[in-house]
Amino acid sequence: MQLDPAVLADKVRDVPDYPKPGVVFKDVTPLLGDHVSFSTAVDWLVTRFGRGTVDKVVGIEARGFILAAPVAYHFGAGFVPARKTGKLPGETVSVTYELEYGHETLELHRDAIAPGERVLIVDDVLATGGTAAATVGLVEQLGGQVVGLGFLIELGFLEGAKRLTHDHVSLLTY
Asked: Active-site residue among 51, 61, 63, 159?
């Protein structure tokens, strides 16, 4: 699918000084709220990885859920939420990692991914790469095979891609 990222870039709103002074937050809710932009972003992720290549799609809390669920649907794959600690009701595996603003813990249900399943990880933004790398670790801990990572936005100046050892794609790069 040929796509000019500039077509969607104007749907991303900059919010200065959020969540703390000096940070310019990339708000994707206008893009998600526009059905053409939203479906274009989902279709782009699906075509970048090819149908039939994914068994599970992991969406990272919380905006990653919004993108990952329709991507999983289009793949005919299962959707797996990567949640912050204490949010999943069953037995979990967890990892604590560093964020650009502190520390966080992510969890997956222990039975969410079977050994050998092909897994695509999806999130809205790749920043420092800590959350994405932690999610890769969780998937691999369960025996899943990470086939790639897909992001709506990559904040290239933070060099988060350097922390990733798997192929990744980003629709928009800032």
From this structure: 63
